[in-house]
Design brief:
The protein has 248 residues and is an alpha+beta fold. It is built from seven helices and twelve strands. The protein has helices at 2-7, 47-56, 63-66, 68-71, 101-104, 181-187, 209-244; strands spanning 23-31, 37-46, 76-86, 89-98, 109-111, 114-121, 124-131, 152-158, 161-165, 168-171, 174-180, 191-198.
Length: 248
């Protein structure tokens, strides 16, 4: 029953819906050294299924409706919406210029099933986002067409320097999260995205952990092999010396 309920969920904003075609959702957060930046949400639907998707999407999940309260904040200096087609996918996006992220998100903000908050302590900033499907139980017509096999949600946070994250950090100031809708529905759980960052740019050459880790593993294995060989050689040498001392 629980899985059936989640299969009926409509998440227009988060793009976690596929009505007769592939749906993708992108969220991009850019934070500059002065604490300002941009917040962009976009969803893309296969052009052949786009008209069906638009008809099925409730008004409250249209991007302008979903962010209506946020847009009114005095720290939102500009808002841009765009519709375009690329590679057989029709996209709708909304991008907001934000003068001060911690000021706007000091109190948790909710956009459908998404909760977002930024806070600051001693110059270190904490980003946290929760996706909770329990809070987006809007059923849609034509649900029998639902095919979520390839649906996905991509989140990217770009800051001057990220010091900790539960996402994938491919650069000093970039963290990404890739969320699969089938996995999210199957697990029926909330998803938590977290990162800590500072506004001072990273200095030096950053080596991504996924690139650095194999070298650590191979180095450890190599050191282990050398140690084992050294022990074998030493033991063999000692045995040889003991045999030479035997007298008959």
């Amino acid at each position: 029953m629980r899985k059936t309920r989640f299969a009926l969920i409509l998440i227009g904003l988060t793009g976690l819906l596929l009505l007769g075609g592939c749906v993708s959702f992108d969220e991009d957060i850019l934070i500059k050294e002065d604490g300002s930046g941009t917040l962009r949400f976009a969803y893309g639907v296969e052009t052949t299924a786009y008209s069906q998707f638009e008809l099925a999407l409730p008004q409250e999940y249209q991007l302008d409706s979903l962010f209506a309260t946020l847009i009114q904040d005095e720290n939102i200096t500009d808002v841009r919406q765009q519709d375009y087609e690329e590679g057989g996918i029709t996209w709708q996006s909304i991008e907001m210029d934000i003068a001060d992220f911690p000021a706007v998100f000091a109190d948790e903000r909710r956009f459908g099933p998404i909760f977002m908050i930024f806070d600051e302590q001693d110059g270190t900033y904490h980003f946290e986002q929760t996706i909770d499907l329990n809070l987006a139980n809007v059923s849609i017509p034509g649900i029998y067409l639902l095919d979520i096999a390839d649906a996905g949600f991509e989140v990217q946070l770009v800051t001057p320097q990220i010091i900790d994250t539960n996402g994938i950090q491919r650069d000093a100031g970039v963290s990404t999260w890739s969320i699969s809708l089938p996995d999210l529905v199957e697990e029926s759980e909330s998803i938590y995205l977290e990162a800590e960052y500072i506004l001072e740019p990273y200095e030096g050459y950053f080596i991504p952990w996924e690139l650095y880790f194999p070298y650590v593993v191979f180095g450890f294995l190599g050191l282990s092999i050398v140690s084992i060989l050294a022990i074998i050689i030493v033991n063999t040498s000692k045995r040889g010396k003991k045999k030479q001392k035997l007298k008959f």
